[in-house]
Automatic annotation (TrEMBL):
Segments forming domain HTH tetR-type: 8-68
Gene3D superfamilies: Tetracycline Repressor, domain 2 (1.10.357.10)
InterPro entries: Homeodomain-like_sf, HTH_TetR, Tet_transcr_reg_TetR-rel_C_sf, TetR_C_31
Protein name: EbrA repressor
UniProt-listed Pfam families: TetR_C_31, TetR_N
SUPFAM superfamilies: Homeodomain-like, Tetracyclin repressor-like, C-terminal domain
Keyword Membrane: no
Keywords for the protein's UniProt record, in alphabetical order: DNA-binding
Signal peptide: none
DNA-binding region(s) from the entry: 31-50
Length: 200
């Protein structure tokens, strides 16, 4: 009789494998079989830990949105600078000397960073986020992500309603960034954000 090997990290390796597949092949490339192969575990292990692909996707989305490298952490770090003097590299022509970094400046800087090198991670986050359209099990996690984004922004806006409009605008801008090859227009993006924040 074969001895079952104790492998306490197997569940985590399965989640990590699912995230890698979603990032490089999209949700369509995800199956128990492909995840088992990527994680180098027996096929039965994936169904033991995750009865359905939805269960696995929920775990993957929860991990992606809570990791230190997630967009949430980026946002919190940059938005903590709102009100401070603008850095030397600025966030566009509106970030003038002697004036604190505005919310529109900070958000423009974040989106600019995604446009020039951060697309892989944000693509993964949106790949999982948009999977919720067809997978009801993912919807509570996706809704919690939207709520967390709004909560972070609400610290810097007049009210929660403004924060939620900003979330919708940022989602739209990021999706356009991912779906088109157009160059990032920093001035136009800042102008759109400033219309919502009420900044000059």
């Amino acid at each position: 009789m074969a001895v079952r090997r104790f492998d306490p990290g197997r569940r985590q390796r399965i989640i990590d494998a699912a995230i890698r597949i979603a990032e490089f092949k999209g949700i369509a490339g995800l199956s128990h079989r492909t995840v088992a192969a990527e994680a180098d575990v027996p096929l039965g292990s994936t169904t033991y830990h995750f009865a359905s692909l939805d269960d696995l996707l929920v775990a993957a989305l929860e991990q992606v949105t809570r990791e230190p490298s997630s967009a949430m952490t980026d946002w919190e770090d940059v938005l903590a600078e709102v009100g401070r003097p603008a850095p030397a590299h600025g966030a566009g022509p509106q970030a003038t000397e002697g004036r604190g970094l505005t919310l529109a400046d900070a958000l423009t800087r974040l989106l600019d960073e995604y446009a020039h090198g951060g697309r892989g991670r944000i693509r993964l986050e949106y790949e999982l986020y948009l999977a919720a359209l067809r997978r009801p099990a993912l919807q509570p996690v996706a809704a919690a992500w939207c709520d967390e984004m709004a909560r972070i922004l609400a610290r810097h806006t007049a009210d929660e309603a403004t924060a939620r409009v900003l979330v919708a605008l940022i989602d739209g801008l990021l999706l356009q960034l991912l779906l088109t090859d157009r160059p990032f227009d920093r001035q136009a993006v800042r102008s759109a954000l400033a219309r919502v924040t009420g900044e000059p």
